[in-house]
Amino acid sequence: MSRYFSSKYSQLTPYTPGEQPQDMVYTKLNTNECPFPPSEKAMEYLYKNLRPLNLYSDPQMDELRKILAETYDITPDMLCINNGSDESLNFAFMAFCDENRPAVFADITYGFYPVFADLNKIPYEIIPLEEDFSIDPKKYMGLNKTIFIANPNAPTGKILPVSTIEEIVKSNPEGVVIIDEAYVDFGGESSIGLTKKYDNVMVIQTFSKSRSLAGGRLGFAAACPALIQDLNTIRYSTNPYNINSMTAAAGIGTLKDPEYTKRCCNTIIENRAYLAEELKKRGFEFPESVANFIFAKSPKIDGGELYRKLKEKGVLVRHFDKETICQYNRITIGTRQQLDVLLAKIDEIMEEMQ
Ligand code: PMP
Q1: Could you tell me if 179 and 162 are in contact, meaning their C-beta atoms sit under 8 angstroms apart?
Q2: Residue 237 dihedral angles phi and psi, to the nearest 5°
Q3: Measured between alpha carbons, how far is 78 from 156 in angstroms, rounded to an integer?
Q4: How far is the CA of 93 from the centre of ligand 1 (A)?
């Protein structure tokens, strides 16, 4: 830290993103990217429709909002386009939390939530998950604070039904309920429909997982127009050109080829069933996942040790040091070929231990 660093941030512990190592080619199953490239039609659209880069991008993202609104049967004024879900989340912490309305989220969930809260000097309350990693909705009723729920949750992969989310939204009329649906396209049901019915729910989605655009950095928030206006006040006070023209064009192209996204998601769902079966055969334990990852532990090997040994053998998975989950590794669902490499390396490691 330099002696010039603001005292506002000197105590901040930044988020640690998953590794993106460049030293060798890994079988990369650690950051829940889509293993398939963006659709060819999307890339073609990008090349043919790119707005000249000497001009600023459209701060309103009109074209992208129009096609997204059609996709989700809402109106464009119910959408704010952001630089990945991370930016939508940070804006939501800034817009809807303060001393009087603290943030509330689970103890085991997306690790960026407490960082956003600390960055913005927002107090937060933590609600522990149940023993089986489920969320007990009763603990979220009548809080009237700003609630953040990753649904499906990360890194557990468990989901709450929309009917339960609706109960939580109804019971917190004085607080916004923010549903982070980064992983909803792999078999989950979206709560976007609730944004037409309630003025205190916001759904945040990303193009990073099911839409193969993690490197493009694109996401959106859906909510009633008044909440979106609040988010835009923050956005226009931070970076009105938060989406570059290349990413915007890639996003529009992606939405014009929904069949490709569907096919990718279906393959991931099939591969998830395959990995679950193979991990079970090897004695791993894990909650049933509706996301593009499985959060698994083996009674035969320490979680950290498995992570390290897999990395030595060229396979990256995500391990968290937190005591309650340090026996687990979060494994992204890759291609069948990637999963077979993972399974072969797990078998090798188990053999070497005998
Ligand atoms: N929410 C959750 C639950 C996530 O796991 C992630 C990915 N790390 C994000 C949001 C952020 O996604 P992105 O910024 O790539 O859209």
Answers
A1: no
A2: -95, -5
A3: 29
A4: 15
User: Where do runs of H (alpha helix) occur along the chain?
Assistant: 40-49, 62-72, 84-96, 112-119, 162-170, 225-238, 245-255, 258-281, 303-312, 336-352
| Cβ atoms of residues 179 and 149 within 8 Å | yes
pLDDT recorded at residue 208: 98
The reply to whether omega before 258 is within 30° of 0 (cis) is no
Which 3 state secondary structure label does DSSP give 136? coil
- Ligand 1 geometric centre to CA of 34 (Å): 13
CA dihedral over 257, 260, 264, 265, signed as positive or negative: positive
DSSP codes of every residue in 243-268: S-HHHHHHHHHHHT-HHHHHHHHHHH
Determine the pLDDT at residue 21: 87
Ligand 1 surroundings by CB, under 6 angstroms: 84-86, 110, 150, 154, 180, 182, 206, 208, 214, 219
Tens of pLDDT along 301-311? Answer: 999 999 999 99
Could you give the angle at the alpha carbon of 186 between the alpha carbons of 184 and 343, nearest 5°? 130
For the CA of 109, the closest atom of ligand 1 is: 3
How far, in Å, is the centroid of ligand 1 from the Cα of 148?
13
Percent of the chain with pLDDT over 70: 100
Residue 354 pLDDT exceeds 90? no
Mutation pick for ligand 1 pocket among 112, 113, 116, 159 (CB with most ligand atoms within 8 Å)? 112
At residue 300, the pLDDT reads 96
Cα(250)–Cα(61) distance, integer angstroms: 13
Residue 23 has pLDDT above 90, yes or no: no
Q: pTM of the prediction?
A: 0.97
- Residue of 208, 211, 295 to mutate, ligand 1, most atoms within 8 A of C-beta: 208
